[in-house]
Amino acid sequence: MIWPAIPYLPGQTPRPAEGVFDALKGGLDGLDPAGLADSACFRAGFEAFDRRLYWEAHELWEPVWLRLPEGAERALVQGVIQLANCGLKRRMGRVQAAMRIIPLAEAALARAYAGGVAVMGVSRSRVTGMQEIATRELQYNAESDLTKG
User: Fold this and answer.
1) What domains lie within the chain, and their CATH numbers?
2) N or C: at which end does the chain have fewer Cβ atoms within 10 angstroms?
3) DSSP letter assigned to residue 2
4) Distance of alpha carbon 8 from its chain centroid, rounded?
């Protein structure tokens, strides 16, 4: 995957070309949760998140989420989408919106891991690390914003 040089921030940076992720999104129809978990689209969402490409992560995870039935898998994908949305809102300077999203992400992830086992091949510790990244970035930047006056 060739990632953009700069993350897309709506209204602030150039939007990626239409259909940039179509190749990754193709082939998701008809897959069960295990197949969706194994898809390049789902895996690329984590790579995008790790690169702090939050809009891109959301774009990759959303078609997976749309195809999942209610349950732990859908709650997991909902939670990581919300973590990405938190990061995106923060990068856009919308601190309050980002702060409102964190508890929603935490609630979805708690539902996902209520059984205590990995979901879609993603360990709870992996997601906890993502939560810590989003929270740490949010707290750091919120504190920075306060010192700006």
Assistant:
1) 22-147 (1.10.3450.10)
2) C
3) P
4) 14
The whole-number pLDDT of residue 146 equals 47
Burial of residue 31, with CB atoms counted within 10 A of its CB: 0-12 exposed, 13-18 middle, 19 or more buried = middle
Answer for the pair 84, 104: CB distance below 8 angstroms, yes or no.
no
Q: How far apart are CA 91 and CA 138, in angstroms?
A: 9
Structure tokens at 139: 């707290």
Backbone angles phi, psi at 18, to 5 degrees: -60, 135
Distance CA 141, CA 30 (A): 41
pLDDT at res. 148: 47
Segment 98-124, tens digit of pLDDT: 999 999 999 999 999 999 999 999 999
Q: For the CA atoms of the chain, what is the radius of gyration?
A: 15
What single string gives the DSSP state of each residue in 66-124?
HTPPTTHHHHHHHHHHHHHHHHHHHHTT-HHHHHHHHHHHHHHHHHHTTT-S-BTTB-H
